[in-house]
Amino acid sequence: MEEIKFTIDGQEVTAKPGQSVLEATLAAGIYIPNLCYDPKLEPYGGCRLCVVEIEGMRGLPTACTTKVTPGMKVRSETPEVHQVRKITMELLVADHPLECLTCSLNQRCDLQKAAAFLGVDQSRLRRSERALANDESNPFFVRDFKKCILCARCVRVCSEVRGLGAIDMAKRGYEAFISPFAGLPIADSICESCGECVDHCPTGALYVRGEAILPGKEVKTICPYCGVGCQMVLGIRQNRIVKVLGDLTYPVNSGSLCVKGRFGLDFASSEDRLKTPLIKKNGQLVEATWDEALDLVASRFKEIKKKHGGQAIAGLCSAKATNEENYLFQKFIRAGAGSPHIDHCARL
Fold this sequence. Notes:
Elements: E1 4-8, E2 11-15, H1 21-27, E3 53-54, E4 73-75, H2 79-94, H3 110-118, E5 141-143, H4 153-161, E6 167-170, E7 177-180, H5 196-200, E8 206-208, E9 217-222, E10 231-237, E11 240-246, H6 259-263, E12 278-281, E13 284-287, H7 290-308, E14 315-317, H8 323-336, E15 342-344
Parallel strand pairs: 1-4, 14-15
Antiparallel strand pairs: 1-2, 3-4, 5-8, 6-7, 9-10, 10-11, 12-13
């Protein structure tokens, strides 16, 4: 299908059919402040920061919910647009904690970025504070209600992407907040701890325990846990994993991860991780070489098979192994040991 041409602030921009004004302008490298927009979610128009003027259209429509049409003329930097955006941002900042330097999302916060773009460094409005305690019931992440801007990205990603709907908007107006059913702690809800809500939160209202350190570099890799093959982006600092994200560009998982892939990689740098084989000698486990360990396993297999037959041997495959490695393992148990007893941990 042919691309659609339109102009924004006098600059000609091309868009794909069906794209919104916000999607097209962001793709063209033109920043329009936004907080509730997310490329994985349906347009919402809740934050009202992406309002623009469009010739022939009444009022100030939101760019995220307005589809591009041929010849459309958009203005995003008029005094009226700037004034509306600035007042909206001041309302958001009025009850938002001013602790950016100690916030886990400092320098990566969408609210911080939009406020800087609009020139809002303080609010003219009287400051207030939400009287809600943090929800620290989940072992992997914390919910800080004071930093929540009610963009509903966490609610929508849980419903639209994960199909779970563990959280929703509760109450109305200034008393509104994000909550599981019946106001339960998140750990007592149907939440699966996938971490999607954390990844899509534009502020520090949701943050992972122990991920305050910024990574020095990022490395793409495949999740080691199962055969789905989800790709992830690991944030590395001093040879340790300090952040885990799903890869949005990878078609297998499109940025999504399960609880194991998102929060289960701390074993990689654990002090308790086995780094060499252990052999029991005189009732004590002692370090050994791989040759020693493999020789011992081979000799014990031979002894068991000779004394009890091949069916006395059973094998349990691992989801952390590749499909090829699991195939070789089952071939070894069936053909090498002569045993039909083979199973896989993913079935348990």
